[in-house]
Hints:
Layout: E1 7-10, E2 15-18, E3 24-29, E4 35-38, E5 48-53, E6 57-63, E7 70-76, E8 81-87, E9 91-93, E10 96-98, E11 103-111, E12 114-121, E13 123-124, E14 129-130, E15 132-135, E16 139-144, E17 147-153, H1 157-161, E18 166-168, E19 172-178, H2 186-206, H3 215-227, E20 229-230, E21 235-236, E22 259-260, H4 264-274, H5 277-293, E23 302-303, E24 314-315, E25 329-330, H6 342-350, H7 352-355, H8 365-381, H9 400-419, H10 424-444, E26 446-447, E27 452-453, H11 468-471, H12 480-493, E28 494-495, E29 498-499, E30 514-515, H13 516-528, H14 532-545, E31 555-556, E32 563-564, H15 570-583, H16 587-592
Antiparallel strand pairs: 1-2, 2-3, 3-4, 5-12, 6-7, 7-8, 8-11, 9-10, 11-19, 12-18, 13-14, 15-16, 16-17, 17-19, 20-21, 22-23, 24-25, 26-27, 28-29, 30-31, 31-32
Helix pairs in contact: 3-15, 4-5, 4-6, 4-15, 6-8, 6-9, 8-9, 9-10, 13-14, 13-15, 14-15
Amino acid sequence: MSGLDLGVIGNGTIASLIDEQGRHVWTCWPRLDGDPIFHALLGGEGGFWSVEPARPATARRRYVGNTAILETELEDETGAVIRITDLAPRCRRFGRMFRPATLLRRIEPVQGRFPCTVRLRANSRYGAEPMRPVALSNSLRLISGDEAIRLTTDMSVACIAEELPIVVHAPIHMILSADTSVLESPAQVFRELYEETLFYWQEWSRYLSVPFEYQDVVLRAAITLKLCAFEETGGVVAALTTSIPEAPDSGRNWDYRFCWLRDTYFTVHALNRLGATRTMEDYLRYITTVVTLSEDGTLLPLYPILPGSTPDETEAPALSGYRGMGPVRVGNAAWFQRQHDVYGSVVMAAAQMFYDHRLPVRGDLELFQLLERLGEQAARLALEPDAGIWEYRGRERVHTHSALMCWVACSRLAKIAGVLGLPEERGDYWRAHAARIRRAILEEAWDAERQTFVESFGGKDLDAALLLMHEVGFLAADDPRFVGTVEAIERDLRRGNHLFRYKAPDDFGEPENAFTVCTFWFLDALAAIGRKDEARAIYEELISCRNSLGLLSEDVNPLTKELWGNIPQSYSMVGLIISGMRLSKTWEEAFWRDS
């Protein structure tokens, strides 16, 4: 776990990762996909905001209840203790949500006299250019070219600018924000925004639907998932970081600060199960915006949180990488790949709007006609080669999962046509396409000898995405073909209580670590075929793999349980939510009927 034992704070505009010692080590500015002003997580000179004890110290951390407010206590060898409180303000003001690109920090004495040094070393251009400090009377401007941010504080500005030691006698308040003057006292600003942010998160959490069991796990996962949402557009990033490798020195370093369309259904499903309807509505708004902007229904695999630009892939040479394991990539070249599963993912997610009576904006004929454009693409591309869900960079095949999701697109459109009361021939049109694709999958992707489906038509390899055949309604859980596929994947891809996405070599060799969301798919499949006790054991091991603040990354070493890959991974948090709800006893079973 070591280097990824991080906490996260955020407010729907920005987020910041904070390490065990209370250092801000990854903060993109002024939004989730921006240039990181703090980047020490990925190396380079500076790029952090720290409170460094003068004497050796130990740390303990916690979130304040069900919030995104993080407390870090540092205790030095003499027993002196300080508490650092970090948050990004989020509250309702003037009839709307107040969520500025701002970080608040308070350092307060708890016990004894604690000497320390506050270091604020911000950079721009992905670590290539230091931000020059300029001390003013009650604030410190940090300047790089035309860009500037400002730290307003009631601490000695000179001690921060010159990194001189202080002793914490009384609470210190800091406000890192845009380059504007703060007229009120930092203490007053902190106090008011702390109380309002605390109230917001406690109110948001109290209205969530949670399972009887695993409540704390699901609540922390829900809050973390919300921190991955960019509220201005509704987009949800796959993770808050870039280029944390999937395994040591593997070169599998990718920028995940984008919205992958294949994540849409599972994210919407998790938000729906939680009852987080506003966040779900925002996300559906993002999806429908992306669909509307596509004139012919062609979709890219991923989009920026502000749709309209292209996330071209480059490297950041000033950053050496996580533990020196570069490269650090900015942007993601997968955006121009052909990945046909996206059509089914979007249609399946958007279907929520036609069924959910809680939503003030429901699906209508106009939206259905937009989705039909995606359906036409799905029908045309279902049996064509693509890069697949795993985004192979060196080959294309007719991937079973891609064909499956194209079937989903056509199948769901037929059902939506019925919900809207459209003429029968409209539903028949989509049912015919779905039937054609289904026949092809059953004929071309089934290995009769091994009694399992395979990852591509005519192939022999397996991949974990085949576990979703029951999830999306293609096969019943008790269908021998699905059971056989689950058992074959278990034999081939299971390592202990973890699952690899595939084992065949790809562009970077053989995968070295388990892919966390695949383990969630596996345990869900086990529960579906009647092996629920085994599924619970696997879920509880995944819970134990979370870091000390409840976060999961993309990958885990099945032997050491060390976390790898970008963090926090939205898909992993979604897995904690959905699987936890499925495996838990119901409130009625546990609370009312338990004898």
